[in-house]
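Exam revision sheet. Question 4 asks you to relate a sequence to its structure. Input first:
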Amino acid sequence: MSFVTTPDGVQIFYKDWGPKEAQPIVFHHGWPLSADDWDTQMLFFLAQGFRVIAHDRRGHGRSSQVDGGHDMDHYAADTSAVMEHLDLKNAVHVGHSTGGGQVARYVARHGQPQGRVAKAALLSAVPPLMLKTSDNPGGTPIEAFDGLRAALAANRAQFFLDVPSGPFYGYNRPGAQVSQGVIQNWWRQGMMGSAKAHYEGIKAFSETDQTEDLKAITVPTLVMQGDDDQIVPYKNAALLQDKLLANATLKIYAGLSHGMHTTNADTINADLLAFIRG
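Answer key, structure tokens:
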């Protein structure tokens, strides 16, 4: 397995597939998953001739289960360590959910200033801010995130079955075509990681204000979200991202869930491909 060691001594696991001279696409996973969440996309874009890269966030998957640094600043810096190690240029960064926040902070603070980024895509992504505040009245109340923390601390294994079985993929909707394999793979990825990283990551994805990150991004950015996203409400996410980004293309998908890149991979992959090649 391949690892990069960050300046603060964290081992970050990464996958790097495809011709090294091809344009790289870098995938950033959501909470509490791993690089494996992008397997469908990585195989698809590999077949299209791209170089595809994904890494496990610190405390997630196969990366070090470290005590601290479970915040957007460290997530972005860890990403930068991988990108610099591989010396990636002209890269497209694709982030889902928390990974979308990671993309926004990495691109704004590291990748774009270094000239390493060509484009970005935010899928069901958490920016600009999930938490409801006086300045963000459309956000989610803190009690919802406290509930996530309580459920994780009480019985993480059961919680990590309940989330994918219900709202994450829209499997709680009438007529949904439920895949037990998808549910079990979500659970597998989640349970590989650190309970502490997952617990502290809830604060990172819910309370980090990334308004300025979005304003700083000038590369073409595709914003994608389903209007039946039960995890990250699209009106307070994708619609605001579209307003804050300087060079955005917005796609809202009727009836699709938070995990649409898995349940509707053919649609999402085709739109990503058109954006990257456009």
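Marking note for examiners. The chain has one domain: 2-277.
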